Amino acid sequence: MSSKIRLGILGGGGDSLIGVLHRVASSMYDKYQIVGGVFNPNWENNISFAKTLGLSENRVYIDFDAFIEEELKLPVSERIEVVSVLTPNFLHFPMAKKLIENGFHVICEKPLTTTLSEAKTLESALKKANTIFAITYTYTGYPMVRQMREMIQSGVIGDIQKVDIQYYQGWINPILLDKSLRKTIWRLDPEKGGVSCCIGDIGTHAFNMAEYLTGQEVTSILADLNTRYDDNPLDVDGTILIRFSKYVKGVIRASQIATGEENGLEVKIYGSKGGFNWKQENPNYLYHLTDNKPLQVLKPGHAYNGALSLNGTKLPPGHPEGIFDSMGNIYYGVAKAIRNEACDSGEYPTMHDGVRGMKFIEKCVESHKSGNIWLDI
Protein backbone atom coordinates (compact mmCIF):
# COMPACT_ATOMS: atom_id res chain seq x y z
CA MET A 1 0.00 0.00 0.00
CA SER A 2 1.33 3.42 -0.94
CA SER A 3 2.40 5.70 1.91
CA LYS A 4 0.85 8.64 0.09
CA ILE A 5 -2.18 10.37 1.57
CA ARG A 6 -5.33 8.90 0.05
CA LEU A 7 -7.28 11.74 -1.58
CA GLY A 8 -10.92 11.82 -2.65
CA ILE A 9 -12.46 14.53 -4.82
CA LEU A 10 -16.02 15.84 -4.97
CA GLY A 11 -16.77 17.79 -8.16
CA GLY A 12 -14.16 19.17 -10.50
CA GLY A 13 -14.82 16.74 -13.36
CA GLY A 14 -14.76 17.31 -17.10
CA ASP A 15 -13.14 20.55 -18.24
CA SER A 16 -13.42 22.21 -14.81
CA LEU A 17 -10.55 24.68 -14.29
CA ILE A 18 -10.72 24.18 -10.54
CA GLY A 19 -10.60 20.41 -10.98
CA VAL A 20 -7.42 20.52 -13.06
CA LEU A 21 -5.83 22.98 -10.63
CA HIS A 22 -6.46 20.78 -7.60
CA ARG A 23 -5.44 17.53 -9.28
CA VAL A 24 -2.14 18.93 -10.54
CA ALA A 25 -1.49 20.67 -7.21
CA SER A 26 -2.05 17.46 -5.26
CA SER A 27 0.60 15.68 -7.32
CA MET A 28 3.39 18.26 -6.95
CA TYR A 29 5.20 17.09 -3.85
CA ASP A 30 4.32 13.39 -4.26
CA LYS A 31 2.32 13.47 -1.03
CA TYR A 32 -1.12 12.42 -2.33
CA GLN A 33 -2.72 9.70 -4.40
CA ILE A 34 -6.18 10.34 -5.88
CA VAL A 35 -8.18 7.24 -4.97
CA GLY A 36 -11.77 8.05 -5.91
CA GLY A 37 -14.70 10.38 -5.46
CA VAL A 38 -17.75 11.81 -7.19
CA PHE A 39 -16.73 14.02 -10.10
CA ASN A 40 -20.08 14.68 -11.72
CA PRO A 41 -23.76 14.22 -10.70
CA ASN A 42 -24.36 12.44 -14.02
CA TRP A 43 -23.22 8.85 -13.54
CA GLU A 44 -22.05 8.27 -17.12
CA ASN A 45 -19.98 11.46 -17.08
CA ASN A 46 -18.75 10.63 -13.60
CA ILE A 47 -17.48 7.15 -14.41
CA SER A 48 -16.15 8.18 -17.82
CA PHE A 49 -14.08 10.96 -16.29
CA ALA A 50 -12.81 8.67 -13.53
CA LYS A 51 -11.57 6.24 -16.19
CA THR A 52 -9.55 9.02 -17.83
CA LEU A 53 -7.80 9.43 -14.47
CA GLY A 54 -7.14 5.70 -14.28
CA LEU A 55 -9.17 5.19 -11.12
CA SER A 56 -10.71 1.95 -9.99
CA GLU A 57 -14.46 1.94 -10.70
CA ASN A 58 -15.28 0.57 -7.25
CA ARG A 59 -14.00 3.80 -5.64
CA VAL A 60 -16.13 6.05 -7.87
CA TYR A 61 -19.55 6.61 -6.33
CA ILE A 62 -22.96 7.51 -7.69
CA ASP A 63 -23.40 10.36 -5.21
CA PHE A 64 -22.00 11.90 -2.05
CA ASP A 65 -24.06 9.80 0.36
CA ALA A 66 -22.81 6.61 -1.30
CA PHE A 67 -19.26 7.98 -1.07
CA ILE A 68 -19.53 8.35 2.70
CA GLU A 69 -21.36 5.06 3.26
CA GLU A 70 -19.01 2.92 1.19
CA GLU A 71 -15.76 4.54 2.34
CA LEU A 72 -16.68 4.02 5.99
CA LYS A 73 -17.06 0.29 5.33
CA LEU A 74 -13.38 0.06 4.41
CA PRO A 75 -10.55 -0.51 6.90
CA VAL A 76 -8.98 2.74 8.10
CA SER A 77 -5.74 1.76 6.34
CA GLU A 78 -7.55 1.76 2.97
CA ARG A 79 -10.12 4.51 3.49
CA ILE A 80 -9.80 7.92 1.81
CA GLU A 81 -8.14 10.24 4.34
CA VAL A 82 -8.77 13.73 2.97
CA VAL A 83 -11.45 15.01 0.60
CA SER A 84 -11.30 18.03 -1.71
CA VAL A 85 -14.69 19.75 -2.07
CA LEU A 86 -14.76 21.44 -5.49
CA THR A 87 -18.52 21.79 -5.96
CA PRO A 88 -20.64 24.95 -6.34
CA ASN A 89 -20.94 27.04 -3.16
CA PHE A 90 -24.30 25.73 -1.93
CA LEU A 91 -22.90 22.20 -1.58
CA HIS A 92 -19.85 23.17 0.49
CA PHE A 93 -21.70 23.19 3.82
CA PRO A 94 -23.60 19.89 3.70
CA MET A 95 -20.62 18.05 2.26
CA ALA A 96 -18.02 19.54 4.58
CA LYS A 97 -20.21 19.00 7.64
CA LYS A 98 -20.80 15.32 6.92
CA LEU A 99 -17.12 14.79 6.07
CA ILE A 100 -15.99 16.41 9.32
CA GLU A 101 -18.51 14.43 11.38
CA ASN A 102 -17.23 11.19 9.84
CA GLY A 103 -13.56 11.87 10.53
CA PHE A 104 -12.31 12.95 7.11
CA HIS A 105 -9.82 15.76 6.66
CA VAL A 106 -11.15 18.40 4.25
CA ILE A 107 -9.74 20.76 1.62
CA CYS A 108 -12.57 23.09 0.56
CA GLU A 109 -12.92 25.66 -2.18
CA LYS A 110 -13.94 29.17 -1.14
CA PRO A 111 -16.16 30.72 -0.04
CA LEU A 112 -16.49 28.33 2.87
CA THR A 113 -20.32 28.26 2.80
CA THR A 114 -23.23 30.40 1.61
CA THR A 115 -23.98 31.88 5.05
CA LEU A 116 -22.06 32.86 8.17
CA SER A 117 -24.37 30.68 10.27
CA GLU A 118 -23.32 27.61 8.26
CA ALA A 119 -19.67 28.59 8.61
CA LYS A 120 -19.97 28.79 12.39
CA THR A 121 -21.64 25.38 12.46
CA LEU A 122 -18.69 23.92 10.56
CA GLU A 123 -16.28 25.63 12.92
CA SER A 124 -18.00 24.01 15.91
CA ALA A 125 -18.04 20.60 14.23
CA LEU A 126 -14.31 20.84 13.47
CA LYS A 127 -13.45 21.62 17.10
CA LYS A 128 -15.18 18.40 18.14
CA ALA A 129 -13.61 16.31 15.36
CA ASN A 130 -10.06 17.70 15.72
CA THR A 131 -9.28 16.97 12.07
CA ILE A 132 -7.48 19.12 9.48
CA PHE A 133 -9.50 21.62 7.46
CA ALA A 134 -8.08 23.89 4.76
CA ILE A 135 -9.79 26.44 2.56
CA THR A 136 -8.10 27.24 -0.73
CA TYR A 137 -7.32 30.92 -0.76
CA THR A 138 -4.89 29.96 -3.47
CA TYR A 139 -2.79 33.09 -3.70
CA THR A 140 -1.34 32.64 -0.22
CA GLY A 141 0.73 29.83 -1.75
CA TYR A 142 2.85 32.05 -4.00
CA PRO A 143 6.48 32.18 -2.78
CA MET A 144 6.71 35.97 -3.09
CA VAL A 145 3.42 36.49 -1.25
CA ARG A 146 4.86 34.38 1.54
CA GLN A 147 8.08 36.38 1.40
CA MET A 148 6.08 39.62 1.66
CA ARG A 149 4.26 38.24 4.70
CA GLU A 150 7.52 37.34 6.43
CA MET A 151 9.11 40.72 5.69
CA ILE A 152 6.03 42.63 6.91
CA GLN A 153 5.86 40.60 10.09
CA SER A 154 9.57 41.11 10.76
CA GLY A 155 9.10 44.88 10.53
CA VAL A 156 10.91 45.56 7.25
CA ILE A 157 8.39 48.21 6.16
CA GLY A 158 7.59 49.42 9.67
CA ASP A 159 4.10 49.97 11.01
CA ILE A 160 1.34 49.36 8.46
CA GLN A 161 -0.30 52.59 7.28
CA LYS A 162 -2.26 51.77 4.12
CA VAL A 163 -3.56 48.60 2.44
CA ASP A 164 -4.84 48.75 -1.15
CA ILE A 165 -5.89 45.49 -2.81
CA GLN A 166 -7.52 45.31 -6.22
CA TYR A 167 -8.96 42.21 -7.88
CA TYR A 168 -10.34 42.92 -11.33
CA GLN A 169 -11.77 40.41 -13.81
CA GLY A 170 -13.96 40.88 -16.87
CA TRP A 171 -15.23 37.37 -17.54
CA ILE A 172 -18.84 37.92 -16.47
CA ASN A 173 -19.30 41.09 -18.52
CA PRO A 174 -20.36 39.48 -21.84
CA ILE A 175 -22.73 37.16 -19.95
CA LEU A 176 -24.28 40.02 -18.02
CA LEU A 177 -24.85 42.03 -21.20
CA ASP A 178 -27.09 39.25 -22.55
CA LYS A 179 -30.26 39.08 -20.45
CA SER A 180 -31.01 35.54 -21.62
CA LEU A 181 -27.65 34.33 -20.29
CA ARG A 182 -27.85 35.88 -16.84
CA LYS A 183 -30.06 33.11 -15.48
CA THR A 184 -27.75 30.38 -16.76
CA ILE A 185 -24.77 31.12 -14.48
CA TRP A 186 -24.88 29.53 -11.03
CA ARG A 187 -22.74 32.28 -9.53
CA LEU A 188 -25.58 34.75 -10.23
CA ASP A 189 -28.15 32.47 -8.59
CA PRO A 190 -28.61 33.22 -4.85
CA GLU A 191 -29.79 29.66 -4.25
CA LYS A 192 -26.48 28.27 -5.47
CA GLY A 193 -23.96 31.10 -5.07
CA GLY A 194 -25.13 32.64 -1.80
CA VAL A 195 -25.71 36.32 -1.02
CA SER A 196 -22.88 37.59 -3.22
CA CYS A 197 -21.26 36.90 -6.57
CA CYS A 198 -18.22 39.14 -6.97
CA ILE A 199 -17.39 39.72 -3.31
CA GLY A 200 -18.06 36.08 -2.48
CA ASP A 201 -15.92 34.85 -5.36
CA ILE A 202 -12.94 37.20 -5.61
CA GLY A 203 -13.48 39.96 -3.05
CA THR A 204 -13.00 37.36 -0.33
CA HIS A 205 -9.59 36.52 -1.83
CA ALA A 206 -8.57 40.17 -1.50
CA PHE A 207 -9.88 40.30 2.07
CA ASN A 208 -7.99 37.14 3.00
CA MET A 209 -4.82 38.54 1.43
CA ALA A 210 -5.14 41.72 3.51
CA GLU A 211 -5.32 39.77 6.76
CA TYR A 212 -2.79 37.10 5.75
CA LEU A 213 -0.11 39.61 4.82
CA THR A 214 -0.54 42.15 7.59
CA GLY A 215 -1.14 39.68 10.40
CA GLN A 216 -3.99 41.95 11.49
CA GLU A 217 -7.75 41.47 11.34
CA VAL A 218 -10.09 43.96 9.69
CA THR A 219 -12.37 45.43 12.38
CA SER A 220 -14.94 47.29 10.24
CA ILE A 221 -16.00 47.86 6.64
CA LEU A 222 -18.11 50.13 4.45
CA ALA A 223 -19.24 48.65 1.13
CA ASP A 224 -20.66 50.05 -2.10
CA LEU A 225 -21.72 47.22 -4.42
CA ASN A 226 -23.12 47.11 -7.93
CA THR A 227 -25.46 44.55 -9.52
CA ARG A 228 -25.41 46.50 -12.82
CA TYR A 229 -28.99 45.50 -13.75
CA ASP A 230 -32.25 45.53 -11.75
CA ASP A 231 -33.02 41.92 -12.67
CA ASN A 232 -29.60 40.72 -11.48
CA PRO A 233 -29.83 39.96 -7.73
CA LEU A 234 -26.13 39.59 -6.93
CA ASP A 235 -23.21 42.01 -6.98
CA VAL A 236 -20.72 41.89 -9.84
CA ASP A 237 -18.59 44.81 -8.65
CA GLY A 238 -17.75 46.48 -5.37
CA THR A 239 -15.57 48.94 -3.50
CA ILE A 240 -15.04 48.35 0.20
CA LEU A 241 -13.32 50.65 2.68
CA ILE A 242 -11.63 48.71 5.46
CA ARG A 243 -10.29 49.61 8.90
CA PHE A 244 -7.84 47.56 10.91
CA SER A 245 -7.64 50.21 13.63
CA LYS A 246 -8.03 53.97 14.11
CA TYR A 247 -4.97 54.80 11.99
CA VAL A 248 -4.58 51.69 9.83
CA LYS A 249 -7.01 51.75 6.93
CA GLY A 250 -7.36 50.59 3.36
CA VAL A 251 -9.54 49.71 0.40
CA ILE A 252 -10.57 46.53 -1.41
CA ARG A 253 -11.72 46.92 -5.00
CA ALA A 254 -13.23 43.89 -6.71
CA SER A 255 -14.95 43.63 -10.07
CA GLN A 256 -16.01 40.99 -12.58
CA ILE A 257 -17.20 43.60 -15.09
CA ALA A 258 -13.81 45.24 -15.56
CA THR A 259 -13.96 44.75 -19.32
CA GLY A 260 -10.87 43.10 -20.77
CA GLU A 261 -9.27 42.30 -17.42
CA GLU A 262 -8.16 38.71 -16.89
CA ASN A 263 -7.14 37.89 -13.32
CA GLY A 264 -5.87 41.19 -12.03
CA LEU A 265 -5.17 40.68 -8.35
CA GLU A 266 -2.81 43.44 -7.22
CA VAL A 267 -1.54 44.08 -3.70
CA LYS A 268 -0.12 47.36 -2.39
CA ILE A 269 0.83 47.64 1.26
CA TYR A 270 2.55 50.68 2.72
CA GLY A 271 4.27 51.03 6.08
CA SER A 272 6.12 53.79 7.92
CA LYS A 273 9.47 52.66 6.47
CA GLY A 274 8.52 51.27 3.06
CA GLY A 275 6.01 49.44 0.93
CA PHE A 276 5.35 46.39 -1.23
CA ASN A 277 3.68 45.92 -4.60
CA TRP A 278 2.81 42.49 -6.03
CA LYS A 279 0.70 41.40 -9.02
CA GLN A 280 -0.75 37.93 -9.47
CA GLU A 281 -0.35 38.04 -13.25
CA ASN A 282 3.40 38.56 -12.78
CA PRO A 283 3.85 36.71 -9.49
CA ASN A 284 7.60 36.17 -9.42
CA TYR A 285 8.34 39.86 -8.85
CA LEU A 286 7.91 41.47 -5.44
CA TYR A 287 8.60 45.20 -5.49
CA HIS A 288 10.00 46.74 -2.30
CA LEU A 289 9.71 50.53 -2.10
CA THR A 290 11.41 52.92 0.35
CA ASP A 291 11.92 56.68 0.64
CA ASN A 292 15.71 56.67 0.52
CA LYS A 293 16.79 53.73 -1.65
CA PRO A 294 16.22 52.67 -5.27
CA LEU A 295 13.35 50.30 -5.97
CA GLN A 296 14.25 46.72 -5.06
CA VAL A 297 12.91 43.69 -6.93
CA LEU A 298 12.85 40.36 -5.09
CA LYS A 299 12.38 37.06 -6.93
CA PRO A 300 11.77 33.48 -5.76
CA GLY A 301 14.44 30.86 -5.21
CA HIS A 302 17.20 33.15 -3.95
CA ALA A 303 18.95 32.70 -0.62
CA TYR A 304 17.87 36.17 0.50
CA ASN A 305 14.28 34.92 0.83
CA GLY A 306 12.93 33.50 4.08
CA ALA A 307 12.14 29.90 4.98
CA LEU A 308 8.40 30.13 4.22
CA SER A 309 9.07 31.43 0.72
CA LEU A 310 11.87 28.97 -0.04
CA ASN A 311 9.82 26.07 1.29
CA GLY A 312 7.26 26.82 -1.44
CA THR A 313 9.81 27.26 -4.24
CA LYS A 314 10.34 24.18 -6.37
CA LEU A 315 12.61 25.51 -9.14
CA PRO A 316 15.91 27.43 -9.38
CA PRO A 317 15.77 31.22 -9.81
CA GLY A 318 14.60 32.34 -13.25
CA HIS A 319 12.18 29.46 -13.78
CA PRO A 320 8.66 30.90 -13.57
CA GLU A 321 6.21 29.37 -11.12
CA GLY A 322 2.50 30.08 -11.19
CA ILE A 323 -1.00 29.27 -9.99
CA PHE A 324 -0.54 25.48 -10.02
CA ASP A 325 2.55 25.85 -7.84
CA SER A 326 0.69 28.17 -5.48
CA MET A 327 -2.12 25.67 -4.95
CA GLY A 328 0.47 22.88 -4.70
CA ASN A 329 2.12 24.67 -1.79
CA ILE A 330 -1.20 24.73 0.06
CA TYR A 331 -1.67 21.01 -0.52
CA TYR A 332 1.88 20.46 0.74
CA GLY A 333 1.12 22.35 3.94
CA VAL A 334 -2.04 20.31 4.49
CA ALA A 335 -0.08 17.09 3.95
CA LYS A 336 2.39 18.11 6.64
CA ALA A 337 -0.45 18.86 9.05
CA ILE A 338 -2.15 15.52 8.35
CA ARG A 339 1.13 13.68 8.96
CA ASN A 340 1.83 15.72 12.14
CA GLU A 341 4.98 17.26 10.66
CA ALA A 342 6.25 20.74 11.52
CA CYS A 343 4.09 23.25 9.62
CA ASP A 344 4.30 27.05 9.48
CA SER A 345 1.05 28.88 10.26
CA GLY A 346 1.23 30.53 6.84
CA GLU A 347 1.34 27.30 4.82
CA TYR A 348 -2.40 26.83 4.36
CA PRO A 349 -5.56 28.83 5.13
CA THR A 350 -7.67 27.31 7.89
CA MET A 351 -11.29 27.14 9.00
CA HIS A 352 -10.74 30.44 10.82
CA ASP A 353 -9.89 32.11 7.52
CA GLY A 354 -13.01 30.64 5.94
CA VAL A 355 -15.23 31.96 8.73
CA ARG A 356 -13.57 35.38 8.51
CA GLY A 357 -14.31 35.37 4.78
CA MET A 358 -18.00 34.68 5.38
CA LYS A 359 -18.19 37.48 7.96
CA PHE A 360 -16.68 39.83 5.38
CA ILE A 361 -19.09 38.79 2.63
CA GLU A 362 -22.22 39.15 4.75
CA LYS A 363 -21.13 42.48 6.25
CA CYS A 364 -20.39 43.86 2.77
CA VAL A 365 -23.88 42.98 1.57
CA GLU A 366 -25.43 44.32 4.77
CA SER A 367 -23.45 47.56 4.59
CA HIS A 368 -24.52 48.16 1.00
CA LYS A 369 -28.19 47.39 1.60
CA SER A 370 -28.23 49.60 4.70
CA GLY A 371 -27.14 52.65 2.73
CA ASN A 372 -23.37 52.16 2.59
CA ILE A 373 -22.68 52.41 6.30
CA TRP A 374 -19.77 51.33 8.51
CA LEU A 375 -20.26 47.95 10.16
CA ASP A 376 -18.07 46.06 12.62
CA ILE A 377 -16.85 42.60 11.68
TrEMBL record:
PANTHER family hit by this protein: CONSERVED EXPRESSED OXIDOREDUCTASE (EUROFUNG), OXIDOREDUCTASE
Protein name listed in UniProt: Gfo/Idh/MocA family protein
Domain named Gfo/Idh/MocA-like oxidoreductase N-terminal: residues: 7-135
Pfam assignment, any one: GFO_IDH_MocA
InterPro entries, sorted: Gfo/Idh/MocA-like_OxRdtase_N (IPR000683), Gfo/Idh/MocA_oxidoreduct (IPR051317), GFO_IDH_MocA-like_dom (IPR055170), NAD(P)-bd_dom_sf (IPR036291)
Organism field: Gelatiniphilus marinus
Domain GFO/IDH/MocA-like oxidoreductase residue range list: 145-276
Gene3D superfamilies, sorted: Dihydrodipicolinate Reductase, domain 2, NAD(P)-binding Rossmann-like Domain
